[in-house]
Write a structure and sequence with these properties.
423 residues; FAD/NAD(P)-binding domain; five-stranded parallel sheet; binds flavin-adenine dinucleotide; single chain; 2 domains; alpha/beta; 26% helix
Length: 423
């Protein structure tokens, strides 16, 4: 059987001979996704391996530092500050395959792409992030970026959030939503709400506007120490929290949004809210092509051991970042710690064919909860929601120094150390 023919026979099925372009390439390490996780791993392994043979598959022309979008939405930075051309950030000795991965064939150590090419590997790292379902709420796609509908989760529209903040007037209502699904940065839906309140406060107009947090969840934050501070912030700004309120439709022409409310007895009712500003955190899920693959667990995430980040069925497959099944808060901060663990473990696997003395990821996640211009509660915690502070000071309160860390320190470390392979 010739190489091309061999590759065209996958998972027991013969793929039409002309389905793939000529067999593209083979790599010692193949990484899917050049976001925070994939790029960090590529740069780190390029340093660690004696003869690096690493390829990154990612269709995006740009790499985004998404944690900055909260401050961009609040008018602190221009959105260009969060972007670098992908070609600039991919390390020189790493091959960039500008394509989207579409199907995994882990038994054959092969991945195919949207353009019909096949790539084989010795070790695979899966890191394409989380999928945002912009079409998951009727009316969202059509209205995003106009009619008062904004979202910091969209690079295209992130600056419109600030436009909405500035146009709030006496008697207006601003609603901030959070969906029932897992999301990246669990704190982002509320951070922009606090910034909006602080913006209004500075203008002396806080009491002119009704500000509502309509969340499908049942609590403000999972870690009690930080939830306590946030509840004080909520009282200070005079915010209304409506839990178990799930956004289901937007009528931009009338500036109305429908929510399904789940009551204590489990029954539901629908209620329509008028809004002038609606900041939407859209529903999210594991990327479709991951969900439909044999790498996925029942919920669709790449099924890895939560400590070693090695796949539970395919030992030469690893995953980290938002797409991994690890039950931590999906954040760039988690990626940083996961990369430290995976860098060690994958090198061990390459050397010994097994992870002899594994490093273990403890579920570390961090969320700089911005509560106003110049105020941040730096929440850091592990799998068991135990606080894991990095600084020798009380982090369970609003601090100016932590705002500076968020605004200047972490972005600097991200661009200059983390994605250069020193997480
Ligand atoms: C508004 C907002 C605020 C945030 N705030 C914070 C914060 O304060 N602190 C914090 O730590 N984190 C924050 N985050 C979360 C953080 O950005 C993510 O957790 C982090 O980027 C996850 O890294 P990742 O590599 O898994 O995914 P991403 O960085 O999203 O990268 C995924 C990559 O995969 C690529 N890709 C997608 N599909 C395919 C495919 N089929 N084939 C190949 N490549 C593909 C994409 O093009 C992208 O480059 C925030 C995120 C947002 C949106």
């Amino acid at each position: 059987m010739g190489k091309q023919q061999e590759l065209n026979t996958v998972q027991g099925q013969t793929v039409p001979a002309n389905h793939f372009m000529p067999y593209a390439s083979h790599h010692k390490v193949l990484i899917i996704g050049a976001g925070s996780a994939g790029l960090t791993m590529a740069a780190m392994l390029a340093k660690k391996m004696d003869t690096p043979d690493i390829a990154l598959i990612d269709p995006s022309e740009s790499h985004y530092y998404q944690p900055l979008w909260t401050l961009i939405g609040a008018g602190v930075y221009n959105k260009e500050k969060s972007l670098k051309p992908m070609a600039e950030v991919i390390p020189e000795d790493v091959t960039w395959i500008k394509d989207a991965a579409s199907t995994f064939y882990p038994e054959q150590n092969m991945v195919t792409t949207q353009s019909g090419k096949a790539y084989s590997y010795e070790h695979l790292i899966v890191a394409p992030g989380i999928q945002i379902n912009w079409d998951g709420i009727p009316g969202l796609l059509e209205n995003l970026g106009k009619n008062g509908v904004c979202s910091n989760y969209s690079y295209r529209d992130v600056e419109y959030t600030y436009e909405c903040m500035k146009s709030l007037k006496k008697g207006d209502t601003a609603i901030f939503t959070q969906p029932a699904t897992p999301i990246k940065c669990g704190g982002a839906p509320q951070k922009i709400m606090y910034l909006t309140c602080d913006y209004l406060r500075k203008q002396g107009r806080l009491n002119d506007v009704d500000v509502l947090f309509n969340s499908a969840g049942g609590i403000i934050f999972g870690v009690p120490d930080f939830a306590k501070v946030l509840n004080e912030v909520i009282d200070r700004y005079g915010l209304t929290t409506n839990f178990k309120h799930n956004l289901v439709a937007i009528h931009g022409d009338k500036k109305e949004a429908d929510f399904v409310i789940t009551k204590e007895d489990g029954s539901t009712e629908e209620k329509t809210f008028k809004y002038d500003m609606l900041h939407v955190t859209p529903p999210m899920q594991a990327p479709e092509f991951v969900k439909n693959s044999s790498l996925a667990n029942e919920a669709g995430w790449v099924e890895v051991d939560k400590e070693t980040l090695q796949h539970v069925r395919y030992p030469n497959v690893f995953s980290l970042g938002d797409v991994a099944s690890t039950p931590n808060a999906k954040t760039g901060a988690a990626v940083r710690k996961q990369a430290q663990v995976l860098g060690h473990n994958i090198m061990q696997y390459m050397k010994h064919g097994e992870i002899k003395s594994p490093k273990k990821y403890n579920g570390y996640g961090s969320c700089p909860l911005i509560t106003g211009y110049g105020k941040t509660v730096l929440a850091e915690f592990d799998y068991d929601n135990n606080p894991t502070p990095s600084f020798p000071m009380n982090q369970a309160r609003e601090r100016w120094d932590m705002y500076m860390v968020k605004k200047h320190g972490i972005p600097f470390l991200y661009w200059n150390l983390m994605i250069k392979g020193n997480p």
